[in-house]
Task: inverse folding
């Protein structure tokens, strides 16, 4: 069997899923400097949105995805203006508590509304695969990777060429200078947060047919997401992409080649993080820490 | 003077209220029900609550001339909350009877507070053998759910009957308590049945990717893939096996296969999977008990009553908790007194046909003095239906190759 080739395929596909999970959080932190512990729950809400859109409206998850992202952007912006903006200059503990509390509320509301039963969307491509001899490329994961690629590409283009995107970058690089240049800081913060929620919803829509949907899925993946974001460098969009791919490949390599390796995947995530931070404390593509 | 009158009024009111409470308590039979009404195991607890309430209603709401008082406490699927809830029920409410909790790790947390007062304990869940070792030999502990070793004893017997021994078995198990405690039982019973375990691969619970472990498993060319995983991972496993077109003839897991949520989540990938159940709605037709047909109607009739009352199909834990509660109430009635020792004696003598199966407490070889409902069914999903394949006396079909 083409063992190494299959390992690489699975690693890249897993990395692609990780990009989707972490990208939004990186964008949000990079601009607003708020660590959003509710990011996992926004992913969960996205998964449920895709599930109910299919169950009730017969909308394929990939069709409902842009609609959900649009709605999420608006809701995220409102949420930021009403709630998160109040803790922008607050101590870090306040930020953590507020976003953590929001996460608990979202999880428990989901539990009350939809129970703890596991669910999954099953569009036709969820069960598809491309076969090349003994090599298998699962269709659902491939689509997840393609969606990640498209969204990352669009965000990169937006950050580079769109006026609001450039304003967002300016704000992330130097808040004081951005204010002096007339950039509407509260509006840009809200927009960045809204986009981050939209990206989380997209990730949830993909997970709805790749994995199982439960109210608890958000907290379960949050640790991994933070590891990726820190690994890539807090606030670095490129870094989170590299970090996600690195982690996906490393975990898969360990699962394939180390005995009982699949039981070590969580440990691998944090071991890689530990090693990278020793060599490069700011993360792969983060800014250097100066004293 | 005003203050004296107020103080006297207050004291008299307090005395009257206390007397009223005690009078009320004397007119009721209290049953503590600490179950998972929120949190991760809310599905178990929600189903159980329906079963307990339905049994109380079927008994007419009264036993030995007293009102049945069901004291539900939400243990929140949390061990600390379980300790608090059970302590409160035993020390403050002075219950003589306890039903629940259900999930193994949550129920295990109830053992220390239970020991403080030792009410009669009807354990309608908890499959780990920790209970046998710690409380199994207690005359007030009644277990109405199969232990994990019953799962693999039944599975291996059923598979051996149809497939013969010396088949190659590959096991995938999760690195949590479930997988790690069940793996030795798989090894024990499958090897004793003559199967050859050719691979054992661990996966992280809630793993994001089953593909690496399936690639490794496939190298050992097993005849049987046994997934010792819980529902969330069972969904990922079934879908991943299907997507990869793995050429493994027989796919086996445990309780997840019977759950509608698993079946809906994996859709067409469910076909061919073999699983276990103690109760397969609509598939096994238990007759009514000849002596107590109202309390223990046939399983068909009981399901109909449930549907009329609740407007949906009964969940997995409903019949378990119904049968458990109904047997407890019947034992209290037969004992004629609200005394846990006498009720325990009456429970041991019960021999009834319930919608959940044969309700009779017997000792297990491994240490539980009072065990009922340990009989399990092996079934296979065939064309969207559960076909019972073992034991033969209840079989509605045979195992088919995928």
Result:
């Amino acid at each position: 069997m083409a063992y190494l080739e299959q390992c690489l395929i699975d690693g890249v596909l897993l990395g692609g899923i990780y990009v989707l999970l972490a990208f939004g959080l990186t964008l949000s932190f990079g601009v607003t400097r708020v660590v959003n512990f509710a990011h996992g729950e926004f992913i969960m809400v996205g998964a449920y949105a895709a599930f109910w859109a299919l169950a009730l409206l017969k909308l394929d998850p990939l069709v409902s995805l842009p609609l959900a992202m649009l709605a999420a952007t608006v809701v995220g912006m409102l949420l930021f203006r009403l709630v998160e903006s109040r803790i922008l200059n607050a101590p870090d503990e306040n930020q953590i508590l507020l976003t953590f509390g929001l996460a608990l509320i979202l999880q428990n509301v989901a539990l009350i509304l939809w129970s703890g039963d596991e669910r999954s969307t099953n569009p036709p491509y969820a069960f598809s695969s491309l076969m090349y001899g003994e090599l298998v490329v699962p269709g659902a994961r491939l689509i997840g990777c393609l969606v990640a690629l498209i969204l990352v590409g669009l965000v990169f283009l937006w950050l580079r060429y769109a006026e609001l995107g450039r304003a967002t970058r300016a704000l992330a690089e130097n808040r004081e200078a951005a204010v002096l240049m007339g950039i509407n800081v509260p509006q840009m913060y809200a927009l960045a947060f809204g986009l981050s929620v939209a990206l989380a919803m997209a990730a949830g829509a993909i997970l709805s047919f790749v994995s199982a949907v439960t109210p608890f899925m958000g907290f379960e993946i949050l640790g991994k997401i933070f590891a990726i974001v820190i690994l890539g460098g807090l606030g670095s969009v490129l870094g989170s992409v590299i970090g996600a791919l690195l982690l996906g490949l490393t975990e898969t390599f360990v699962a394939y080649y180390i005995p009982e390796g699949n039981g070590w995947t969580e440990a691998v995530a944090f071991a890689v993080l530990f090693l990278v931070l020793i060599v490069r404390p700011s993360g792969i593509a983060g800014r250097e820490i100066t004293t | 003077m005003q203050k004296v009158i107020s103080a006297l009024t207050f004291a008299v009111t307090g005395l009257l209220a206390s007397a009223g409470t005690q009078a009320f308590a004397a007119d009721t039979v209290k049953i503590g029900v600490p179950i998972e009404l929120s949190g991760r195991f809310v599905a178990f607890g929600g189903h159980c609550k329906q079963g307990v309430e339905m049994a109380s209603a079927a008994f007419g709401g009264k036993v030995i001339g007293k009102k049945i008082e069901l004291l539900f406490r939400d243990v929140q699927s949390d061990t600390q909350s379980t300790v608090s809830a059970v302590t409160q029920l035993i020390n403050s409410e002075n219950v003589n009877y306890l039903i629940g909790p259900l999930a193994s790790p949550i129920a295990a947390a109830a053992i220390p507070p239970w020991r403080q007062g030792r009410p009669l304990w009807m354990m309608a869940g908890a499959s780990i053998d920790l209970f046998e070792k710690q409380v199994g030999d207690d005359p007030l502990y009644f277990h109405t759910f199969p232990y994990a070793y019953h799962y693999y004893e039944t599975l291996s017997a059923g598979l051996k009957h149809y497939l013969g021994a010396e088949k190659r078995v590959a096991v995938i198990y999760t690195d949590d308590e479930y997988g790690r405690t069940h793996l030795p039982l798989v090894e024990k019973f499958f090897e004793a049945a003559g199967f050859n375990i050719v691979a054992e691969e661990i996966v992280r619970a809630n793993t994001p990717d089953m593909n690496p472990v399936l690639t490794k498993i496939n190298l050992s060319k097993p005849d049987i893939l046994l997934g010792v995983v819980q529902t969330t991972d069972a969904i990922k496993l079934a879908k991943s096996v299907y997507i990869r077109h793995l050429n493994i003839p027989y796919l086996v897991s445990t309780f997840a296969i019977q759950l509608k949520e698993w079946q809906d989540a994996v859709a067409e990938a469910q076909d061919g999977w073999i699983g276990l159940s103690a109760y397969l709605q609509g598939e096994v037709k238990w007759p009514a008990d000849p002596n107590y047909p109202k309390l223990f109607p046939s399983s068909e009739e009981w399901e109909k009553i449930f549907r009329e009352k609740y407007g949906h199909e009964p969940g997995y834990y409903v019949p378990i908790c119904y049968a458990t509660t109904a047997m407890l109430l019947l034992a209290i009635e037969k004992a004629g007194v609200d005394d846990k020792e006498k009720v325990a004696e009456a429970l041991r003598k019960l021999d009834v046909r319930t919608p959940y199966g044969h309700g009779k407490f017997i000792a297990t070889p491994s240490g539980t003095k009072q065990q009922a409902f340990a009989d399990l069914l092996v079934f296979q999903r065939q064309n969207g239906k559960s076909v019972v394949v073992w034991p033969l006396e209840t079989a509605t079909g045979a195992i088919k190759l995928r």
Summary: Chain B has two domains: 28-146+285-371, 149-277+376-394. Residues 185 and 332 of chain B are 36 Å apart (CA to CA). The longest strand of chain B covers residues 66-74. The radius of gyration of chain B is 23 Å.
